[in-house]
Amino acid sequence: MNRVCAIISGGDFAPLDGIEKSDYIIACDKGLDYAASQGITPDLILGDFDSCSGRLPDDIPVLSLPVMKDDTDTMAAIRHAADMNRFSELRIYCALGGRLDHLFANIQAGAFAARHGLTVRISDENTRIIIMPPGEIRLPAEEDFSLSVFALSDSCRGLSISGALYTLDDAEITSSFPIGVSNQWAGDALISFTEGILMIVMSRMPNS
């Protein structure tokens, strides 16, 4: 059974679409402000609380983190969710935009989750990211979005793509060459691979 943990991060605000269907919700620092603004009550509040503007509620568990730490708040939330060993998927909200270093840290944290067997989805209105361990995924065609694949590990092997203009069959891509960027839909896409950590990026096309 697919159990989902939602994490509300502290990047630029993005709609919390579908979050009510999650089995567990973690609000990270400023993510608590975002949750409150949308009437969402998290199951856990986590962070060093250097960016949260409101008072912490008394009726929700809090995991306080030191300001000087190795993990970002989002990374700590992902680590906590992985340690719970209850979920197969993480959906991370409000983790895009803002600072490039924070964005890249969130992607690396997603790779950490994928190494622990979790599929990670990060999205806003214009970008949808899926980070996943070996396996397969079917994606409905979205003509207003590009379709790109990147290796987050040194390489991804056994990569096959069908339902796209540029297909692959048992190929290898590496983290040092962006050969998988800006594919086009030819129908519903089926993506599978056997080794590595893969990032799928769907970006809204200009003027769409």
Note down, in words, how this protein is organized.
With 208 residues, the protein is an alpha/beta fold. It is 17% helix and 36% strand. It has helices spanning 31-37, 73-84, 100-115, and strands at 4-8, 24-28, 44-47, 62-64, 89-93, 119-123, 127-132, 135-139, 148-151, 155-164, 168-174, 185-193, 198-203. The strands form two sheets. A nine-stranded mixed β-sheet has the order 4-3-2-1-5-6-7-13-9, sandwiched between helices. Strands 8-12-10-11 form a four-stranded antiparallel β-sheet, with no helix packed on it. α2 (73-84) runs parallel beside α3 (100-115).
Count of discrete alpha- or pi-helical segments spanning 4 or more residues: 3
Mind describing the biggest β-sheet?
9 strands, mixed
Radius of gyration, in angstroms, nearest whole number: 17 Å
Helix content: 10-25%
End-to-end Cα distance: 36 Å
- Overall pLDDT: 91
Beta content comes to 35-45%
**Strand adjacency order, main sheet:** 4-3-2-1-5-6-7-13-9
Q: How does the helix and strand content classify structurally?
A: alpha/beta
Number of strands: 13
Apparent shape: globular
Low-pLDDT parts are none
**H/E element string?**
EEHEEHEHEEEEEEEE
